[in-house]
Amino acid sequence: MAKNDDIYIKIIKDIQNIIQVELNNEKILLATEKIKLRVNILNFIKIEDYYDYYCQNKDFEIKNLISILTNHTTEFFREPEHFDFLADEIFPEFIKNNKPIRIWSAAASIGKEVYSLAICYLEACYSLGLKYDSIPPIEILGTDLDAISIEKCENGIYLISDIEKEMGKVLIQKYFDYGTDEFKKFVRIKDSVHKLCKFKVHNLLLNSEDIGKFNIILIRNIIIYYKRKEVKNIILKLKNNLENNGYLILGHSESLNGIDVPFTHLKNSIYSLNSEPSEDLTRVFVIDDTLTIRDFLRKNLTKKEGFLVVGEAENPIEAMEKLSQLEQQPHAIILDLNMPKMNGIEYLEHLKNKPHPPIVIMSSVGFDEADNGIKCLELGAFDYIEKPNGIHSTKEILNIKNTIMQARKSSKDYNLKNRQVSKTIYSNNLPKKISKPDLIAIGSSTGGVEALQTILSQLNKNSPPIVIVQHIPEYFSLALANRLNELCNLKVYEGKNKQILEPNCVYLAPGGKQMRIIEEKNNLILEVNDSEKMNMHKPSIDYMFYSLANLKNQVNICALILTGMGNDGANGLKELYNKNAFTIAQDEDTCVVFGMPKEAIALGGVHQVAALNEIPNIIKRIL
């Protein structure tokens, strides 16, 4: 018996040396049973007799044994998410641009995957209004180690009872010919589909330079049978056959985690080959447990638009692992708040005082999220934008892109973000005498939550009224006012209509409203209204600054413009400058985004440019 076992092991090792798969004891027993089946088919009684035959006809027998021993579990449109990805995101780009496409099914088995790809492509073409004669060129190559399987691929004949379980009758009738007489239980793939496909015997461990480059390679449910070393070897060989930014698709149970190969995971075991580094593309990493949001971002943050989604994760724990494996870190991270295992705030707390790319929070906006939103901005999030819901407007998509671009622009200095320059760095025609202000007005945007906390927390109770416009989601202004009230010696309110301005009080413009200052019976009063957006903002800094510039009575004003993107507030600050207000702009080094201050300086509307930590000292000196 032991001698018989030795013979089986010899045969198995011959096969294993060719296919290079890892066989544990269970798989060796299974292989032994399959060899016994082959012995019985050939009517040998003793394994020794079969072994003599095997040695004399080794090439032929190895071909048959490979077919018996290799896994042939396959079906049409297996793991349908992969075909949805191709049909929705990849094929339309090639079809609309009339670009040729090459696809390699590297473990074709009996051809079902190859023909599924061809049918999927044709359906995508037809859905875009094309006829068969006008479809862009496509070539699908199917390879397998098993020569007998490749013969079955070429034949394209399948049992009706099998494929009716795998695809609808409409597709069967559209893409298959039914057999007659003794073949009435079978269908054969139509010539129109077959001509798009080629087949070849190929060992994945061997070089494949002769078959050229492909836009997409599928190697599904195969690498689980190989040792880790062989997996890396196979993937690196496949890499040489992929076009830059091409796609590699594995089986759902397979992953490249922990394998040092230049691929970025997109979703559902789909990877993209990292292109040569391009400083022109803004690299983005998405952390969100909602598949539809990740799909939305991937579809809109395209290379054509100047973006590259370099990775995705369903939660921060998964993200940290994937980010550690990236050769190039992203320029920005998009982060949801509500996720399993670790939420967005916990992730920001984990990153506190550590170098990291700018983080854009993209989550729900509502009263129930307001405190969390403010907490995120306090913890250093670059900005907070509302998560898309339903039909997405062009403006909504543009806002997301602009925010990411501004985040990238700030990323070169993210490790210097908390640096404070302890001096005023710029002065421009300071007034001979700076009068004690009757009112302080502040405008801020991206990065403004932290800046406002820094300034207001250092002011004492000898302050004139302070009015603030901070660009913030509608439901967050009350939460911000409450938070500032906790941190400051002054009383902080969310501004209300007809509210009289009092000393030692701070009034924050409500989100989604405009706020201006008017005069009434020798009092300065807030007017909160629903006027149209100004400079795309509501509340708008310019809207408030213009109202101050138009006050009839003499009011000494100190006006500040702080960190933020865009130019809101720059023109209004210039008007105040012309009306003898004392104006201050935050300096570039301490701005999260040096946008609004830069515009105000360029207009000549700023007396002093100062670091954030110096601004409270300037204010205290003039009070």
From TrEMBL:
It is an enzyme of class 3 (hydrolase). GO terms for cellular component: cytoplasm. Residues 433-623 form the CheB-type methylesterase domain. One of its GO terms (molecular function) is S-adenosylmethionine-dependent methyltransferase activity. The keyword Hydrolase applies. Keywords: Chemotaxis, Cytoplasm, Hydrolase, Methyltransferase, Phosphoprotein, Transferase. Its EC number is 3.1.1.61. Residues 283-402 form the Response regulatory domain. Residues 1-276 form the CheR-type methyltransferase domain. It comes from the Bacteria. GO terms for biological process: chemotaxis; methylation. This is protein-glutamate methylesterase. It comes from Silvanigrella paludirubra. The lineage of its organism: Bacteria, Pseudomonadati, Bdellovibrionota, Oligoflexia, Silvanigrellales. The gene is cheB.
